[in-house]
Structures are given as structure tokens and as C-alpha cells.
Design goal:
The N and C termini lie far apart (91 Å). By secondary structure, this protein is an alpha+beta fold. A three-stranded mixed sheet has the order 1-8-9, covered by helices on one side. The protein folds into three domains: 37 residues; 80 residues, GMP Synthetase, Chain A, domain 3 (2-Layer Sandwich); 29 residues, no CATH class. It is flat. This is Stage III sporulation protein AG. Keywords: Membrane, Transmembrane, Transmembrane helix.
Amino acid sequence: MNFTVLKEKLKKGREVYVAVALALVALIAYFVASSKRDDIPSETTSFDAYITSLENKIGNVIGQIEGCDGVQVAIACSVLEQSVYLTERTETTKDGVVTVTEKPVLSGGKPVVTEVLAPQISGVAVVAWGSDRAALAVKIKQLVVTLLDVEENCVQVLTYNS
């Protein structure tokens, strides 16, 4: 095999090889990025799953009350879950003026989360058979207020229409 001829061909077709190499790098980067995106759950999905889970749990508990059946619960939130980040606080004094700065502490290029605050519930609607009886409606409302730590005026208990 003549390496000189091969070397000349490589020099002439260098642009093609560079283009192919760039295309391969782009494809690899695309697949790596898309696989990482698939691994990260969407905040909305996580939030929706949390609220749905709460609605189901509350509905199951209410369904255990004597005389109550066919329960549906809907929860409304005014504030989504919030992350609290670890910060580094520095104070500097210059000419009698104190300047306080806080910067997030990073680990692996991402801010360190110290706490995740639950969503703030702004309203709860409960629809259930039997809730047309005042005593049962009061029990349901008190149960929701106790379990979700919301104000009584944020809870509505309704019966199914006939």
C-alpha cells in the first residue's frame, strides 16, 4: 500500500472528512442532550402528580365517612412549590456604608437546594353523594380543613345533581 497516495487523497478530501466529523459530533451531542432531557421530570408533571395524589387521598378519606359516597375532590393552588437555596452571605463596609450580598452556593454548577416548600392551597371543592345533609357537609368541611390546613372559607362542599 502506498501511503503517499493515501496521504494526498486525504489532503484533497479533508473538507469532506471535517464535515463528516462535525456531523457526527452534532449527532452525538443531540442524542446525549435528548437522553438527559428525558431523565429530568418536568416540574409541571411533578406538581400535577402531587396535587392529583392529594385529591385522591382526601377523596378516599372522605369516602370512608358514613353516608358519604361517590366523592370527587378538586384542589386549587395559588403558589406552586418553591425551592429554597443555600446562600453565602458577605458583608463589606466602605466609607461607612455596609453592603450585604448573598450568592447561591453551587455544587456541580447547580445551586444547592436546602428545602422544597409545598404548594400553597387556595381552595378545595368536594362533590359527594350525601353531602346535601348539613351534618355530613360540616364533617366533610372540617375534615378537609384539618387535613390540608386551609381556612374554612376556602372549602366548598357540594352534592351531585340528581
